[in-house]
Structures are given as structure tokens and as C-alpha cells.
Design goal:
Elements lengths: L6 H23 L4 H18 L3 H8 L3 H13 L4
Helix pairs in contact: 2-4
Length: 82
């Protein structure tokens, strides 16, 4: 008995499989994905803002640019996190 799936479905399944392999490889290497790095940076910015630090101090402490700080702060405000 043969199962026939479309090329679109085949690509979707391959994409899911590849993503799982990528995440497993990162985990084994003790690394995190770019998405996770971004989430961690935004959480740090949120915590430092709660401590009352200024923009300049946060940028220096996290070693990020002013534009990156502004973009992340804007995202946090849009999400209602700050």
C-alpha cells in the first residue's frame, strides 16, 4: 500500500523535522537559538528598567546599541510588559 502526499505537505514535514534537529543540536552544544537570545535580552532590559537604571546604563551593561534598546523597549511596551 502506498501513501501519496503532496510536495507541499512533504516540505512542511521536512521543515518541522529539520527544526527539531536544529533545536536538539543547539541543546547538545549548550547553545541557544537567536530567538531565545532575543527573549533573554528583553527580559534583562525589563529587569534593569524595574531597578530604575537609565537607557545609557542599560546599553553599557548589556553591550547593545541605543537603537537595539529602543526597539526592545518598544516591543515590551506593545506587549504590555512594562
Amino acid at each position: 500500500m502506498t501513501t501519496i502526499i503532496s510536495n507541499k505537505e512533504s516540505k512542511r514535514r521536512r521543515s518541522i523535522r529539520d527544526e527539531k534537529r536544529y533545536k536538539e543540536k543547539l541543546k547538545l552544544d549548550g547553545k541557544v537559538s537567536e530567538k531565545e537570545k532575543l527573549s533573554q535580552r528583553r527580559a534583562k532590559i525589563k529587569d534593569l528598567l524595574a531597578e530604575g537604571l537609565k537607557q545609557k546604563d542599560i546599553c553599557l551593561q548589556l553591550n547593545i546599541s541605543k537603537d537595539t534598546y529602543i526597539r526592545d523597549r518598544k516591543y515590551l511596551k506593545e506587549q504590555g510588559l512594562i
